[in-house]
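Quick check before the chapter quiz. The format below is the same one you will see on the exam, so make sure you can read both the input and the output lines.
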Amino acid sequence: MASIIKYLGCIIFEKAQDILILGGIVLFIVTMFKYVSVFAGSLSLSIVLILLGATLSKIRS
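Here is the expected output.
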């Protein structure tokens, strides 16, 4: 049991930067929808998804 907890802890700490980046993106999009407008939220969501897609396609190639 202790080895499973240690393994999960290592995975979380290795991926901490990715988790923080995704959390920041989610917070940005939610803020746009809630405090600006639906249009701004949709626009920011589409821009973020396009940038993520472009980044992932460059990483894989």
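If your answer matched, good. DSSP finds three helices and no strands in the chain.
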